[in-house]
Amino acid sequence: MSTALIIVDIQNDYFPNGKMELNNPEKAAANAVKVLEWFRENNKDNIFHIQHIASSPELGFFLPNTEGAELHKTVLPLEHENIIVKNFPNSFLKTDLERKLREKGVTKVVVVGMMTHMCIDATVRAAVDLGFETTLIEDACATRELSYQDKVVPAEQVHYAFVSALDSMYANVISTEDFLKENN
Fold first, then answer.
1. Cα 13 from Cα 20, distance rounded (Å)
2. Is the pTM of the predicted complex or chain greater than 0.70?
3. Catalytic residue among 13, 119, 121, 141
């Protein structure tokens, strides 16, 4: 069975001084790089970089033709790697990601990236709905603090709430270290 890596939205606006800074994006990116390096050594034809470009300036970040919308230097694609541009949280919605995965015979996907509570959640759920066996590398993902009315939810709690909701019913949720151990 063929497996693909989907790297979701590891883009400059999520890092310090970006327009939508996340909590610990550097740590998540460093773990994503470890997974990316494993794929480059073991499965180099099935790497998909997802880049979110805002379809409306109201989003406030990932604006077209800005440095913030560029993929972060840690995960820059190699020439033969796929880049999928999206305009919605779900990496499959109105993109050719599913078609490209199917053309390559992919049945399993490994997901890393940003933001856990938005694009990672939407992409993992969509992948499962489309029939892909899905693994989420949780410590290769990052999010931010959220609030609702007068309640503030710290980033770590947001992250683990979404990861725990996805675990087992939607995805095999594991750490970078466990993924590398299982695949070496």
1. 5
2. yes
3. 119
